[in-house]
């Protein structure tokens, strides 16, 4: 599985209530269930009018298929090739 960062332009997402976010997560989970093991949602971050989502997927086309099934756009999909954090400095 490859790791991807997906940028989704969703106007007003930062103003959604907890119940609305819960509903969005349920919609995403339903799309994931249809795709089986091809895609896994790791985490999403909410910003002004956007979400940034980390997914594991077989390939980029699986990310776009999830977007089609869920109705949430995948405006920019970037394959992640590594990670660094404060411990990287050693």
Key phrases:
single chain, 90 residues, alpha+beta, Alpha-Beta Plaits, 4-stranded antiparallel sheet, 2 helices, 33% strand
Structure description:
14% of the residues are buried. The chain has one domain: Alpha-Beta Plaits, CATH 3.30.70. With 90 residues, the protein is of the alpha+beta class. It has a 4-stranded antiparallel β-sheet with strand order 2-3-1-4. The N and C termini lie far apart (28 Å). Helix 1 crosses helix 2. The longest helix has 18 residues. The protein contains 2 helices and 4 strands; from the N terminus they run βαββαβ. The chain is globular and about 40 Å long.
Report the order of strands and helices. EHEEHE
> Using only CA atoms, what is the Rg?
14 Å
Main sheet summary: 4 strands, antiparallel
The percentage helix is 25-40%
Q: Judging by the overall fold, what is the CATH architecture?
A: 2-Layer Sandwich
Topology:
Elements: E1 2-9, H1 18-35, E2 39-47, E3 50-57, H2 60-70, E4 76-80
Antiparallel strand pairs: 1-3, 1-4, 2-3
Helix pairs in contact: 1-2
Short description:
The protein contains two helices and four strands; from the N terminus they run βαββαβ. Helix content is 32%, strand content 33%. Strands 2-3-1-4 form a four-stranded antiparallel sheet.
